[in-house]
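Recall the central idea of this unit: under ordinary conditions, the amino acid sequence of a chain determines the structure it adopts. In this exercise we apply that idea directly, starting from the sequence alone.
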Amino acid sequence: MTHSQESDDQTTPNAAAPKSSEAPKPAPSQQVTPASVKPGPVKPSNIRPAAPAQGAKSEAAPAAGGAAAPSVTPPPSYATDLEEARRFARVAEDGHVFVLIGGEEHPVGQYPDASADEALGYFVRKYDDVVNQLLLLEHRVAAHAPTTDMNKTLDHLAEIVAAKGMVGDLPALEERIEKARADVAQLHEVEKKAHEEQRAAHLAEREQIVAEAEELAGRDPEKVQWKQSSQRMNELFELWKVAQKSGMRLGRGTEDALWKRFRSARTSFDRHRRAFFSQLDADHAEAKRVKEDLIRQAEELSTSTDWGRTAGEYRKLMAEWKASKRAARKDDDALWARFRAAQDVFFESRNQTNAALDAEFEENLKVKEALLDEARAIDAGKDLGAAKKKLDSIRERWDAAGKVPRSAMQRIEAALRQVEDSVKDAEDHEWRRSNPETKARSNSMLEQLQDSIAQLEADLETAKAGGEKRAIKQAEEALEARRTWLKTVEASAKDLH
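Accordingly, the structure predicted from this sequence is:
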C-alpha cells in the first residue's frame, strides 16, 4: 500500500502502550463536541476504526438559528496500525523517533528505556489524538453545530501538526485540516444566513408590536374603547419585554429606535387616556349639576294641583333630562331615582284625584244616557215646534248633568248632535217649503220649462216634415232633457205647498 493510499481494510490491533512503569504517559486528547457538512474519507492511511471515543454523544448539537439538527452517529475512534506507521517513521537505537515527510526525516522526540515499538506507538498515539479531534470537529460540521470555536480548534490542530511532534501521514492530515476549514467557512455562511433570517423575523415581530401601539395611540380619543384598548396596550408592553429578554439582539441602534417609538406611543396613549377621563369627570360633574337643578324643579312641582299645566311642565323637564349628558354611572342612577320620585308624587296625586272624578263622571254618564234616550224619541216631522221645545229642555238638563268619563265623552256628544241635526234638518225643510220667494222662483221655472217644451215640440214637427234626420235627433234629445227637468221641478213645487 502506497504512501498516498487510504487504509480501508486494516484490522491489526492497536500497538500496546509501553509496559515499563517508567515510560511517560501519552498526553490526553483534546475533548471536542460533534458538528456539520458531511466529512469526506479520512486520508491518513495509517488509521483504522476502534472503539467509540470516550464521552462521544449520539445526538448533534443544535444547528445555527436555534433549530435542532438531525441525529448524527458519533464518529468512531481511530488508531494507526504500527506496521502502517513504520512507513512514516524511523526509530533509532537510542529511542529517538524521526517522521518521514517527502523522503526527508524530521526529528520528533525521544522515548528512552523502551523498545522501538513502544517509542513509535507513543508518537503515533499523538497523531491519532489529532486525527480523532479532527473527526469530532467534522461531525460537528455535519450536524450543523455552531461554528463559534471551530476555527480556533482547527488553528490549534494545524499548529500541532506543523510542530511535527508525532508520527503519521502529516501532509494528508494538513490537507484534511484545510478541507475542514473550508467546510467550516461554508457552514458559517449558512449560520450567518439563518441568523439574518431569524433577526429579520424578530425585527418584524418588534415592528408589529410598535406599529400596533402607534395605531392605538393614534385613534380618536372620543371613539376609543378605553378598557379594551388599555388592556391591549399592557399586553403589547408584556410582549415587548418578553421579546427583549428572550429574543435575538437587534443591535443597540435598532433596539433604541424601536423602544423610542414604542415608548412614545405608550406616552401618547396614556396622555390621551388621562385627558379623556379628566374631561369625562368634568362632563359628569356638569351633568350632575344640571340634573340636580332639574330635580329641584321637579320636587317644587310635585305638590301642584294644577294638573294640566303641571303635567306639561313635567314633560318639558323630561325632555331636558333626556337632552342632558350622563353623569357617572353611580350618580346618574341615583339622580334618576330622585327625579322619578318627584314625578311620581305629582302623578300619583293626580291619579287619585282623577279616580274620584271618574266615579262622579260615571254617575253623570248615566244621567246623560237617559237624556239621550229621551232625545232620540223626538219626532220633528210631526210637530216641529214641540220638538224644538223638547230639545231645548234636554240641552239644559244635559249641561247641568256635568262631565262624563273621557272614554265616553266623544260617543255621548256625537249621539246628541245627531238628534240636534235631525231637528235642524226638519226646520230647514219647513223654511224652504214656506218661503214665498222660493215658491215664486219655482213657478217661474215651471212656466219657462213648459214654454221651452212647447217650442221644442214644434221644432220636432217641422224637422219631421222636412225629413231632416239630424235636426229630428237634436230636437228629440233636447225635448227629453226638458221633460225630465220639468218632472223634477214639479216634484219640488209640491213640497213647497
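The mean pLDDT is 77.
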